[in-house]
Structure formats: C-alpha cells, structure tokens
Amino acid sequence: MEQGNINWILAIACLLAGVGIGALGYHLLNGGARNAQKLRQRLAERDRELSELRTGLGEHFDRANGLLDALLANGQNLQQEMQDSAAQLGSSQPRKPDFRQADETSDDVNAPRDYADGNRGTLSEDFGLKSDNDTPAQPPRY
Question: Domain for residue 129, yes or no?
C-alpha cells in the first residue's frame, strides 16, 4: 500500500474512534442531566401539591372559623334565652342542675368484694395460711 492511503485510513479510523468516544461521553454525562431534569420535575410537582394543600388548609380554617363564630353566637343566644326565661319565671339567675341528689341515694351501696357472704376470698389476709390447729408444716420435698 501506498503511504497516502495509510494516512487516509488512519485519519478515518481516528475520526470514527473520536465520534464513538464523544457519543459515549455524551451518553454518560447526559445521564446526570436527565436525573437533574427528573428531580426538577418532581420538585415542581411537590411544590404544586404543597400550594394546593396550603390553599385547602386556608379554606378549612376559614370554614372552621365561621362555624366557631356561629357556635358562639348560638351560645350567646341560648344564654340570653335562659336569662329571659329566668326573669319571666321570677328567678334572678338560672339554676344549674344539682347532681348531688343522685349521689345521696347511692350511699347504701357496698364496695365490690372478691368473695360471697360468709366465705373468705383470695384477697383476705389469711388466704392460703393454715391455722395453728392443723398438722405442722412439712418441709418441701425435692
């Protein structure tokens, strides 16, 4: 072969090797860019979800505040109605219910026991102990 042909073949081989190395480098370096793009996209989705949650939370608090205001207004109306009814019946202040009456009737109730009348239960002080009249205690057998 001639010297000129070898130079051309060598130049074409180097060009192909350079293109292959360049494509390989682009592929390896572009993988990081693709991951960064995916991360940016996920971050944008999370930001959108967070903003939706914030607006939903704001609406929830507004609705809860409105309900609380209505509840307070109803409580004030109820208190005013009670005062008007008490004044109409001749009492100066509405009375609160007296729950002590129910407690006074339940004084005859005994505390619960673990045994029936006349029998000793497991919580008695002498449960499991033998009396002095019985046979003397034997040492345990092993």
Answer: no
